[in-house]
């Protein structure tokens, strides 16, 4: 039985809890800044393309993951509409028991072919895909090694897992190798988890070096391709395309449907045996509804368009290059971001970052802030994302506006 500490106070409603009160205090501190407008939950009344509609007017949009303009694309929309006409809006059951649709398997085969794997499985959310897979694929005799900057969904999966887990420094191959050297022999399975492109910093992982280690030490390698699939590589194929990897160099290619593919959901692509096992055993798949049919059809159409229209990825790459050179010209700090569609500009203090984000919106440019705890305290940044639809004029306009506002605010600070 649990011992009762002397200072324990029984609480009947969540609003009395310390978690709730700490959060309320943090909100109050932020909103007491003069001129504060909440930068979160800004409602847009359109698809997020190079522009979007905010409060009835068109604003430039640099906050979305619609990297190759699939969300809002007429063909993708039509695929979703046709699927609703055929199947309705829901799978209406777990696929294992009642919710399976022909379109689900078609999508999985399309993803497997695109990602050069034997098979794939799709789930209703990218976040849930990581939590469920990382949380359940390893047991008490196993070890999970993960990059220190891993996304929350990977961290949550690790908390759920019954295996041992250890982080290694960001992209620190030597650090990982030293852990493996000293510990590999103590465990049955070792799973190494990295991201193709890191979501807060916009840098690309040196995947071939991880492949070398996983082969040398007999481990499994999982790459979260949320921000790399559809973005990096000549054809937007992700890490395998970018680095010219062999099909089985990465054991589990995880990705989301919500970013370059413009819909919602997550996938795991890998060997036929692994995917077959997951189909019957992965809790987030077995005990959850199948992907909504319009999302399955729209995702499939998006992969088809991505492969048919390489010019989308080329345009995206040109915009990434152009944004980076303009940011350099204007003297901005992009930290380690390089060659990806996530191009954060370091703005420093959290209050300054918040104010800049709001002032940018006032000037008709939507770009969200990334603040502590998502990044280090006072290493706040405006997290620009470019897509294939942005024009050079839009990019220059946004960056020159930011420069003017930053100069303005720092002048007033002095
Ligand atoms: C690296 C990474 N993995 C997983 C996810 C979760 O994906 P989704 O938003 O599609 O649930 C995200 C979301 O931003 C992410 O950045």
Ligand identities: pyridoxal-5'-phosphate
How widely separated are the two ends?
Answer: 59 Å
What number of domains? 2
- Find the CATH topology of the largest domain: Aspartate Aminotransferase, domain 2
User: For this structure, what is the CATH class of the largest domain?
Assistant: Alpha Beta
DSSP strand count: 13
Outline:
globular
The proportion of strand residues reads 5-15%
Biggest sheet details:
7 strands, mixed
Compute the average pLDDT: 95
What would you note in describing this structure?
With 414 residues, this protein is an alpha/beta fold. The protein folds into two domains: 34-63 and 310-413, Aspartate Aminotransferase, domain 1 (Alpha-Beta Complex), CATH 3.90.1150.10; 74-308, Type I PLP-dependent aspartate aminotransferase-like (Major domain) (Aspartate Aminotransferase, domain 2), CATH 3.40.640. The protein has 15 helices and 13 strands. The protein has helices at 18-31, 74-87, 95-99, 102-114, 126-136, 152-160, 173-183, 207-217, 239-243, 272-281, 283-286, 293-308, 310-329, 350-362, 392-413; strands at residues 51-54, 57-61, 119-123, 143-147, 164-168, 190-195, 220-224, 252-256, 266-270, 342-348, 365-366, 369-370, 380-385. The strands form three sheets. Strands 3-9-8-7-6-4-5 form a seven-stranded mixed sheet, sandwiched between helices. The chain has a three-stranded mixed sheet with strand order 1-2-11. Strands 10-13-12 form a three-stranded antiparallel sheet, covered by helices on one side. Helix 2 runs antiparallel to helix 12 and helix 14 crosses helix 15. The mean pLDDT is 95. Pyridoxal-5'-phosphate binds at residues 125-127, 130, 151, 153, 195, 199, 224, 226-227, 256, 258, 266.
């Amino acid at each position: 039985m649990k011992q009762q500490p002397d200072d324990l106070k029984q609480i009947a409603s969540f609003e009395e809890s310390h978690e709730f009160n700490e959060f309320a205090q943090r909100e109050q501190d932020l909103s007491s800044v003069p001129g504060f407008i909440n930068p979160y939950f800004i409602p847009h009344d359109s698809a997020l393309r190079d522009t979007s509609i905010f409060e009835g007017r068109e604003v430039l949009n640099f906050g979305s993951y619609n990297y190759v303009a699939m969300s809002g694309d007429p063909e993708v929309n039509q695929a979703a509409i046709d699927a609703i006409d055929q199947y309705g809006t829901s799978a209406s059951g777990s696929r294992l028991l009642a919710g399976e649709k022909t379109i689900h398997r078609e999508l999985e085969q399309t993803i497997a072919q695109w990602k050069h794997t034997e098979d794939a499985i799709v789930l209703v959310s990218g976040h849930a895909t990581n939590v469920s897979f990382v949380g359940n694929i390893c047991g008490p005799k196993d070890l999970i090694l993960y990059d220190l900057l891993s996304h929350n969904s990977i961290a949550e999966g690790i908390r759920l897992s019954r295996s041992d887990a250890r982080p290694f420094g960001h992209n620190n191959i030597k650090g990982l190798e030293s852990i493996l050297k000293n510990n590999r022999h103590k465990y049955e399975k070792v799973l190494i988890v990295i991201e193709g492109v890191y979501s807060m910093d916009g840098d690309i992982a040196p995947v071939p070096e991880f492949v070398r280690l996983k082969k040398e030490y007999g481990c499994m390698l999982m790459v979260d391709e949320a921000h790399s699939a559809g973005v990096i590589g000549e054809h937007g194929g992700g890490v395998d395309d970018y680095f010219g990897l062999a099909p089985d160099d990465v054991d589990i290619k995880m990705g989301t449907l919500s970013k370059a593919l413009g819909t919602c959901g997550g996938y795991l692509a890998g060997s036929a045996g692994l995917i077959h096992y997951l189909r019957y055993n992965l809790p987030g798949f077995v005990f959850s509804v199948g992907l909504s049919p319009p999302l399955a059809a729209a995702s499939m159409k998006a992969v088809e368009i991505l492969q048919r229209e390489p010019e989308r990825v080329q345009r995206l790459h040109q915009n990434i290059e152009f944004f980076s050179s303009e940011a350099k010209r204007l003297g901005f700090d992009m930290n380690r971001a390089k060659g990806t569609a996530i191009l954060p500009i370091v703005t420093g203090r959290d209050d300054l970052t918040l104010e800049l984000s709001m002032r940018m919106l006032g000037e008709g440019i939507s770009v969200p802030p990334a603040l502590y705890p998502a990044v280090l305290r006072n290493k706040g940044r405006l997290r620009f994302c470019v897509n294939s639809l942005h024009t050079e004029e839009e990019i220059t306009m946004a960056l020159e506006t930011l420069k003017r506002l930053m100069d303005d605010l720092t002048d007033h600070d002095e």
